[in-house]
# Entry
Amino acid sequence: MIYAGCDLGIVAAKAVVIDEDSFLGFDVLPYKNLPRHAAETVMATTLSSAGMDDEQPAFCMSTGYGRRAVEFSDDTILDVACLHRAVKEINPAIRTVIDIGGHTLQIFTVNKKGCIMENVSIQRCITGTGLFLDVMARVLEMPLEEILAASLEAKDPTPLTSQCVVQAESEVVSRVNEGKDRRDIFAGVVSFTAIRISSVIRKVKLRGEVAFAGGMAKNKYVRRHLERNLEVKFDSLGGLDPQVMSAYGAALLARDREK
Amino acid sequence: MITAGCDVGSLTVKAAVIRDGSILGYEIIPASADAINSAHRVMDVLLQRLDLSYEDLDYCVSTGYGRKIIPFAGDNLSEISCHGRGAHFLNPSIRTIIDVGGQDCKAIRVNRKGKLKKFLMNDKCAAGTGRTLELAAESMGIDISELGQLSEKSANPITLSFICSILIEIEVRQMILEGEDAVDIAAGVNNLVASRVAGLVRNLPPKQDIVMTGGLAKNTGVVTSLEEKLKTTFVSLPEDPQAIGALGAALFAADRA
# Structure
């Protein structure tokens, strides 16, 4: 029997398929316009990559902002529950989870008994998230990956001061009009993002091993900034793609439910 | 005596000219990233229309974001003072001005003489400002000026999940493509903006008579929704609400000339 988890975020749909005792496959599908379609597609490609084209999951759990729009799921559950379940499986020594996705920025800690101790979730502001970087890259009219890599060459990073993405857009436009180097501008954006994330993380007392989940965890520049600022080393998550941690937890919960 | 006011905002730039306490004319055009260039452009257009030159002006005061760098202004004042002065001049019963601009939102109290008494400003978060409507309109493939009228036909405004302008842009686009009615989406966006503004205004608190200025004053959907939330009716102004800041600046210029 196979089980599936689908995490429908605002910029990407993620799916994970597992069976009774192993991880079978996953996929990440960035999308722009059609959330329902993205969820269906990512589930189909995940099943396909696991060689399971003809088998339907016994149970599918959905999570994320669009969890109720995942029409083929059997139930929905909050992403914190999924992340919590995933780290229990990956490494029980993990007791702090930082999750930064397209628009999410949250951190929670659990005690040794697995009870959630603190939970800080930024609900209404995308500063410090994937979309914040996307918007800034859009203003600079460059693909994100390209400007991120180029920003490493920055000689004189331009400080960013606006706390709000809309105001930061205007600020970046002003800097461009002043003739500042795009690499310097984006280096300032990345640094600001890391500082903003750090200030949210510091609201919580870090416990045990620290997991960094979500798409932002794959951004090695931000990751390095954070490890330095917070003086931590993030858990390797057993090699799991951090962007699918919620979907993995959802799949595990789907399996738990059926047993 | 002829004086001018120039209000350099983030989305639009405005100029007004008065002579001996009467309005000669005003102009409103989109702003570019270059504030000085924008200010010159609007002033050139207005002066040409009024058949005047810069030399005919006895004094000019600038206001708005770009006010400090305008070369032809003799002085600059905050948009809060200028809005208050301009609105009160046009309608002396006004005691509260709600000014929702491109990226911020202000609630202003003036006394019976038009002098600033108190103000509150939300300039840390652009949720519930012109930018929210601008991005929503873009996602809907319409002009921001159409949002008000479009929403009037709605019987079931959509409740949006987010407040950040960027997330609204995405949510609106996805809703349109999933087949939701544009009329209900427009109403939902207007209600969202009105909620944010109402929250700020209630903290002032407001005092009658209340007027709305700034770009959003032209959006009938937002105005109606805001009146409902504040349980009041706004007074209107005999001139374009977007020009109030420039008008107030021109009046301050007359004091200084």
In short: The longest strand of chain A covers residues 23-30. The CA atoms of residues 12 and 30 of chain A lie 4 Å apart. The two ends of chain A are 11 Å apart (CA to CA).
